[in-house]
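Request from the bench team (R.T.):
"We need a structural guess for the complex before ordering more adenosine-5'-triphosphate. Sequence and SMILES attached. Just send the tokens back."

Command: build protein-adenosine-5'-triphosphate structure.
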Amino acid sequence: MNKKIKLSVENVSKTFRIRGGANGEDGILPVLRHVNFDVYEGEIVSLIGESGCGKTTLLRIVQGLVRHDAGNIRVDGQPVSRPGRDRGFVFQQASLLPWRSARANVEFGLELQGVRAADRHRRAEELLKLVGLGHAGAQFPHELSGGMQQRIGLARALAIDPAIMLMDEPFSALDAQTREVLQEELLRIQREVGKTTLFVTHDLDEAIYLSNRVVVLAAKPGRVKRIIEIPFERPRPPLTELRGDPRFQQIRAEMWELIRNSAPLAAAA
Ligand SMILES: Nc1ncnc2c1ncn2[C@@H]1O[C@H](COP(=O)(O)OP(=O)(O)OP(=O)(O)O)[C@@H](O)[C@H]1O
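Reply to R.T.: structure attached below.
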């Protein structure tokens, strides 16, 4: 079977200019160096690596909010240089508009696209059902739990039917139980809509559980250390069950080792 590349990250490098270093002079912080990987249609690929290795920066580059210094980002073969509706995103905080109902939040992107009211309502209802909140469309964000807000954020991102989804630690602010429920829900939704997803997480178990492949980044500057194929078939059993599989433990140990032993490159390298 030929796999179609939805997102390609080719040789991407990024530095930030930082003001007032140790000696009071401005400096250059290399954050990403020659980062390469592809994401195939329908896959979930996670980025993992120690804090500060550039995961969020890379996601923002793909989103088009941060400009890279070198390399190419392509979605469906088209170069990316600014935000666009081919990329939907869900971040750590759902950031819903507080004065809008859940349904009106889901409709927001469609309104910007000029979609007719009747079509917007129909699409929002479908998506609310998809994320398990068919009953909550009239509620306002302050009436929803953190997990429900993230579900609405996911529905809002899916509403514009993007080519790829970008998710930056979407479950990290949730309590452990809600988090596990939403991880299972994401896999169910993924089965239903087949959306290609690039997912940033700190959590090794989450990365293994959700992903087809995991890109392990080394830090200082961020670079691809290894890309690990996750062998478990879908639909996957609950995470608590999967943790008992010796292959899960083996992959987890491999990732942990890679992250722990990713020595920074010498400054001149
Ligand atoms: N706008 C900016 N200006 C200067 N430096 C920045 C900027 N944004 C990020 N950085 C730096 O780039 C590096 C990578 O940050 P980034 O947030 O991408 O890492 P991360 O892997 O997502 O970290 P975490 O896992 O803690 O969220 C950090 O050293 C950070 O301080």
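Two things stood out. The chain is about 35% helix and 25% strand. The beta strands are 5-18, 27-40, 44-48, 70-75, 78-79, 87-90, 164-168, 196-200, 213-218, 223-229.
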